[in-house]
Amino acid sequence: MRRYLSVSRGLAWRLLHSLVTNPLLFLPPMLMPLFFFTAFAGGLSAVSNVPGFNYGPGYTSFIFAFVLCQSAAFGGVFSGFSIAADFQFGFGRRLLLATPHRSALILGYGIVALFRATITIGVVTLVGLAVGMNIDGGGLDVFGMYALAAIINITGLLFAAGVALRFRSLQATPLMQVPVFLFLFLAPVYVPRELLGGWVHAVAPFNPATHVMETVRDLVAGQGSDYLTTLSVIVALLALVTVFMFRGLRQAEAAG
After folding, report:
1. Model-level pTM?
2. Are 113 and 77 in contact (CB under 8 A)?
3. DSSP 176-235
4. For the chain, which residues score pLDDT lower than 70?
C-alpha cells in the first residue's frame, strides 16, 4: 500500500508542479466556466421574469448549478489531456513499465483532477457570491452539492482517461470534450425542465446530468430533493466509465 500511494503521490506532484510553474496550463479550464457563468447569469437574467420560472434564489443561483457541474466535469477532462500527452511523448509507457500497480497512476491523475476542480469551483463560488448569488441551503445541503461535484469530477476524469488510454495521443482531445459538452447541454441549462421545448424537452429526462443539476439547484435553494436517487444515478454512471477506463488501460498495456 505504501508503494502504491508513493506512485500516486509522485505522479500527482509532477503534474501539480507543472500547473503551478506554468499557469497557462491551468487558466483555460478556469476561464471557460467563468465565461459561461458571467455570460449566462448576466445576459440571460431576464429569464427570471418568464412565467413559470419560480426558482427562489434567483437566476444567478440557477446558472451556478450548471457551472458547478461544468467546472467539476472539465476538471476531470483536462486531466485526461495530461494522460494523452504523457503517452504521446513516451512518458506514459515508462510509467506502465515502472509500476505493477497501474491503478495507482489513475489515482495520481485523479488527485490532480480534484485539485483543478476545487480551485475552479472555489473561484466560481466566490465570483457568484460577489455578484449577489444566494445560497439558501444549510451546511448539509452545501456539503451534498459539493460532494456531487466531486463525483462528477472523477466521472469526467475516468471517461477522459478511457479515451486517452485507447488513442494515446492529444489528437483524441475532441473525443473527450464533445461528449461531455453534449452530456451537460442536453440538460435544463438555461431554464427549468418545464420550460424546455422541442426535442431537448424529450431528451432531458433521460440525461443523468438533468437529475444532477436539478438536485444541485434544490440543494442551493434549501428545498427537499431526491438526493439518494440522484446519487444512485451518478454512481451508476461512474461504474460504467470505470469499466470503460480499465478496458482502455488494458489496451495501453497491450500496446506496450
Report:
1. 0.92
2. no
3. HHHHHHHHHHTS-SSS-GGG--HHHHHHGGG-HHHHHHHHHHHHHHT----HHHHHHHHH
4. 23-25, 256
